[in-house]
Specification:
The chain is built from 3 helices and 10 strands; from the N terminus they run ββαβαβββαββββ. It is an alpha/beta fold. β3, α2 and β4 form a beta-alpha-beta unit. The protein has a single domain, classed as Rossmann fold (3-Layer(aba) Sandwich). The protein has a 6-stranded mixed sheet, with helices on both faces. Strands 1-2-10-9 form a 4-stranded antiparallel sheet.
Length: 176
Amino acid sequence: MLKEINGRELNILISSSEISKRVGELGKQITEDYAGKNLLIIGILKGGFIFVADLIRSIELKTEIDFIRVSSYKNEMNPGEVELVTDLGIPIINRDVLLVEDLLDTGATLEFIRDHILSKKPASFKICTLLNKKKPRESRINADYVGFEIDDKFVVGYGTDFAEQGRNLPDIYVVE
């Protein structure tokens, strides 16, 4: 299995079995919280696509799915200004919306997307993130559903990338 990307060593942080178990738990909680509702799940591309795919299979409700794509990483490891690349294709006015993200880091990307979605007048809006970095943030944004709390380290795998590499890794690794 891949042990490095771009000359940087990878050390396992969260195994695929731990991820699978936690995604199932999140799906069960979301199912309970949205019982009787027609949930619209919005995945954030590219990083969130694997998490979204696994999560929706663990939610036992009527759901629809759409994706939004933004860009914020201008170089390999440092975020820049957030830009909308691909907008939603489904109207969301008066819909119950769950935004699904792979990683809550600085909060700038989620704040940008949250404001964009709220401008479209959903009935409700919540955020689910697989990974939440334990660190002070400039933005005041928090996730309603969190898979794992992690230290402020650069991670890769299970959809997250390092310079567009490593998304296919089944586990989550710290990039050293």
